[in-house]
Structures
1.
Amino acid sequence: MYRPAVAAWTKQTLQDHFFKEAKKQGYVSRAAYKLLEIQKKHKIIRPGAKVLDLGCVPGAWLQVACQQLGPRDRGGLVLGVDLQEVKVPARFCDDRVKVLQADARLLTPEVLLEFTSDGFDAIVSDMLQFTSGVNDVELSLDLAGTALNVATGCYYDMYGEQFEQQVGFRHSGFLRPGGNLVMKVYEGSGTTEFIKSMQPYFTKVARMRVEASRSMSREFYAVGLGRKAPGVHGGGGSGKAKR
Ligand SMILES: C[S@@+](CC[C@H](N)C(=O)[O-])C[C@H]1O[C@@H](n2cnc3c(N)ncnc32)[C@H](O)[C@@H]1O
């Protein structure tokens, strides 16, 4: 009888814990703990990696991603993109963190080529549109579909031809073979199909709910591990990425 109440209490306590812990540790938001948990389980970002962070404001994932790059002499890059103005947090970020104020849905290969000529080792998307909650599942799939498209060139067919014409990554995308992809998704109609659409492109696909998500939230993270070389999967592109 008491279990639901106890579970809610435990979750609330954990959330307060993440908020307080973020402040104490110098992360700009509790979102840091979401990526830290995903990283702990799946080792998304390796030392010296090139990372694309879509929807990066206020910057907690930039902080965590930069920490994972290891010492400065290992190299690496974290490119943060957001609709809003992006300020790079001083704590945990160094000059390997670059930012761009842009709509990820309108990113072009030419823009990304200014930051990397050979793609990214990891692409993470925590993009979220603030809404009344009416069609948030659909909006989350739109944004996750954008991240999947940037990563692999896979066109996730939600809006038909009109959407397809807006994007420029229809061939192989910007995620290197062996690279990893993380996308925030809201559970609901269409999410199972979305996860299925990832499968041809990755060695392993997983869904992950994280402790730091708010208790009422339907969010989870779709994780694609070990991108297959373009041409190995069923859809889009062959040989070298056409960007
Ligand atoms: C939950 S916040 C991200 C938090 C971030 N991961 C962090 O650690 O601080 C979601 C972000 O997605 C951004 N966003 C939403 N739609 C976007 C789009 N189409 N292109 C780029 N950014 C977008 C929002 O502006 C917002 O800053």
2.
Amino acid sequence: MSLEQSVEALRYLGLFSNLDASSIMSTTVHALRPEDRVAAARILMREKSISGVPIVDADFRLVGLISVSKIIEALADGRLADSVDSVMVRDVISLHAHDTFETILSCFQRFKFGRFPVVEEDGKLVGMITDTDVLSAIIRSFYSVYVHDQRRTITLGSFSALSKEFENSADFVYDISCTGLENAGEGSARLKAFLQTKGFGESVVRRASVCAYEAEMNVCIHAGGQGSLRAIARNGEIIVRVEDEGPGIENIDLAMKEGWSTAADAIRELGFGAGMGLPNIRRFSDHLVIMSGKDKPTKVEMIFLESKE
Ligand SMILES: Nc1ncnc2c1ncn2[C@@H]1O[C@H](COP(=O)(O)OP(=O)(O)OP(=O)(O)O)[C@@H](O)[C@H]1O
Ligand SMILES: [Mg+2]
């Protein structure tokens, strides 16, 4: 599938709806001041492998941008010792922190630049978005969030982001069955012991069992307590899949947000329901696919690579 088709597919599936500029921008910004020399911009671009440097005033408000082509011009004219101010572009096309993914995409399509500064209402520079940031966001959406209705089938055909391995067998199988919180977490504790016997390193085992625990607890707390926890552990790779029969997650984008939870007060009093389970799974896994939908089963598949330690 080409990049354009992927973008169309994701747009169709509504998966961009919760991505805004602030969630995809990089916040490590290398900026210069107008009085800095053009030579400094050239050095910064080479050292940081970037193709444009935002220029800010004393309050970090965006006042200009200097691109590689401006550097090349300045080089040809022998103006490397001049101030950035004399060669920078002043009417910079920038994005706002709350701009939607659609706006960002159309900005890239329309202006054909490789990067855009992101500013807040008062003009303060808060980040940069490059075409690579956009591509990463697309790939993350493509692989991590799915809806479970016919739109998916129409758009993605038989494409499945889930591993095929589980169709035949699994190395570890545990049937989740908990009433209330009784037995909750037992499956992930067993998985941990199993992975240790397989000779996986301590750190990858910890990541896999913590994430398995979060997914298992979600089955116990949000999905009636019945489900399965399976794993395939071979060749330095651990694939964990946790499944249940519903009621499903209506909006996966929302569920992935830190602090978002539908847990009842009684559950919160027991110390659950901080809305941190799924965000932690995303953080600690190397690859994550969630398939769910309203009144649908939920499948959470996570991959952990020993080589990523
Ligand atoms: N297997 C599931 N079935 C149905 N809904 C789920 C499932 N897993 C997660 N959810 C929904 O996603 C929300 C977020 O899940 P997450 O694990 O991030 O937080 P939480 O379980 O509410 O709190 P915490 O994990 O911090 O105790 C849940 O509140 C619930 O609405
Ligand atoms: Mg949870």
